[in-house]
Amino acid sequence: MKHTTQPVFVLGPTGSGKSAVAVELAELLGEVEIVSADAYQVYRELPILTAAPSEEERARVPHHLVGFMGVEENNDAALHARRALKAIQDITARGKRAIVTGGSGLYVKFISHGISPAPPSDPALRAELSALPLEEAVRRLQEADPEGAAATNLQNPRYVVRNLEIVLLGGKPLSHWQQNWQHEPAGPGFVITRDTAELDARIERRTAGMLRGGVLDEVRAVAMKELSATAAKTLGLPPILQHLQSGETDTAQLQADIYLATRQYAKRQRTWLRRENWFTPLEADAAATPAELAKRIAQQI
After folding, report:
1. Residue 263 and residue 14: Cα distance in Å, rounded?
2. Could you give the 3-state DSSP secondary structure of residue 228?
């Protein structure tokens, strides 16, 4: 490692337990603060829905970029990365170390490898491309940049639209911008991996816990606000809003819908994490405690 104050990245799909591991690791290492790389935990009104660090966890270890924005405000990877890099710089200047944790892939990448040199988003073009059927957007990307399209998750409209936007605005294939990206990560990275069945069970328990914990009241309180484009995409928010609007009182179907959406999101996260070969896998079974996983990370750094 270049320096003892390099940030440490603790990652994993949703439900893997990364937040708890990050807190345990911070206490184990000492003189550490946590920087979130989560796109949605920024929203102060949605701590239950976004599984934000608890008050107890935040009391144990200082957290940055959690619960500081209103749902009317937009967030994006570049903006978040600039805030995160400033927080890391401040933490390091105070002689401490940062742990970066979160599940939003591009947000992590911009913090670990620098903000992409690709052209910034153009709102008008983004709106035009977002209105296209997914099949049409995929066809246009494949025609404009066959190699880039082959490396894109073509099932994810957001990735397809952004990559097509980059190609159209920049006039060059995606590979051009990727080659100009910083190659070495800012610090060591660890990814918590779990058996799919066990991860699914953890997601199911967390979904049930959110509903018991008052997530419906939490969403009801923001339902009349003008949600930003980012906040509106918060995992689980659309089905909850639909449930509230329908007047339905039975939450069984809602729980099933959120569980399915979360599993699908976790699958996409695992795909992205596997592609990032700078991460060290940290295999965890049902018996592994956050403290044990933190100790294993500490032994490797």
Report:
1. 8
2. coil
Query: ∠80-232-260 over CA atoms, to 5°?
Result: 105
- Each residue's pLDDT tens digit, 194-252: 999 999 999 999 999 999 999 999 999 999 999 998 999 999 999 999 999 998 888 99
**What is the C-alpha to C-alpha distance for residues 40 and 234, in angstroms, rounded to an integer?**
6
CA atoms within 13 A on the CB side of 253: 8
Q: Which two tokens stand for residue 40?
A: 């949605």
- Residue 285 to residue 287: CA distance in whole angstroms: 5
pTM: 0.82
| 33: β partners | 98
* CB count in 10 Å sphere of residue 277: 7
Residue 161 CB neighbours (<10 A): 23
The percent of the chain in helix, strand and coil, each rounded to the nearest 5, is 55, 10, 40
Q: Which of 15, 23, 48 is nearest to 286 (CA)?
A: 15
Which residues of the chain form beta strands (DSSP E)? 8-11, 32-36, 63-64, 97-101, 189-193, 279-283
Give the residue from 241, 213, 242, 231 showing the smallest Cα distance to 44: 231
Paired with 283 in beta bridges are 193
226: Cβ–Cβ under 8 A, 6 or more apart, which residues? Answer: 72
Does residue 58 sit in helix, strand or coil?
Answer: helix
